[in-house]
Amino acid sequence: MLELRHLRCLVAIIDTGSFTDAALHLGTSQAAVSRTLAALEKLLGVRLLHRTSRSVAPTTAGVQVLARARVLLAGADELVREATTGQSRLHIGHAWSAFGQHTTEFQRRWQAQHPETELRLIRHNTPTGGLAEGLCDLAVIRAPLDLRPWSHALVGHEARYVAMASDDPWARRRSIRLSEVSRRTLAVDRRTGTTTLDLWPSHEQPVLEYTQDVDDWLAVIATGRCVGLTAQATAAQYRRDGITYRPLRDAPPVSVHLIWRTHDSHPATHTAIALAGALYRGGPPPPGRGERSGHRGRSVQPGRE
User: Fold this and answer.
1) Phi and psi dihedrals of 206, rounded to 5?
2) Over 196-216, what HEC string results?
3) Which helix (H) or strand (E) holds 138?
4) Which residue from 117, 139, 136 is spatially nearest to 128, judged by alpha carbons?
5) Which tens digits make up the pLDDT trace of 187-208?
6) Which H/E stretch holds residue 35?
7) What is the pLDDT of residues 69-97, one digit of tens each?
8) Which end of the chain has the lower number of beta carbons within 10 A, N or C?
9) By the 8 A CB rule, do 96 and 142 touch?
10) Are 256 and 95 in contact (CB under 8 A)?
């Protein structure tokens, strides 16, 4: 069976230039290095090295195996690092925006208050912001989503905005009414967007044009043929030339949740919830670093259960 020690042996021989130096690098004997390489060549059925009394060089097959070996070893080393340092990193996923206008302050306060836990914000265009895919520990959710499979906390609300081309007549106005939007073509990301037709009566619903992600959404709106509805966070984090945002009147706000896996929560989960909630409330940073586990299938208010 192929083992990582076989690959490490091959790489060490090539990188050090000799069996003797490879043995020193690996902390073993020269005889053990020779046996390990012979076992690898027998396992693969090919000769991997040209050996003379003065040099060692890979064969054609050896070059190919060496390249793959480096990739596999790098992946294995990264896996070990992730497993051993995972609790010292907190990955927060999001589909469009992280915490909107609060994002920079969230990052700064986190660094100041919890320097022992590295914070990484990850954009991933799926309904769960990468949580279901195992790419993050927590995810910021604004789109309509069945929260029952996840533990979740409501951290705040955001007003809705209309996005339009900067030369659109609406760009000269201070705000737009919800009923007016029904007369326009509306760009919608049906996987991760916050807008659904439920905002309008069935007889007043706008024509929809579907997009793939926030960049696609912005590009379509910039052409002038569509407008878009979005949370305030998008207006704060995606300021683009050719795009203007105006407040939307007569529409309910967007709820902002943090979600996480019930049986695999990060130790810093509730610290992140408390900080996000404090920022959305406009209050001071939450005191203390105490942690508690989340509860499945019901909303947990920031900082308390």
Assistant:
1) -80, 165
2) CHHHCCHHHCCEEEECCCHHH
3) strand 138-141
4) 139
5) 999 889 899 999 999 999 999 9
6) helix 30-44
7) 999 998 888 777 666 665 678 999 999 99
8) N
9) yes
10) no
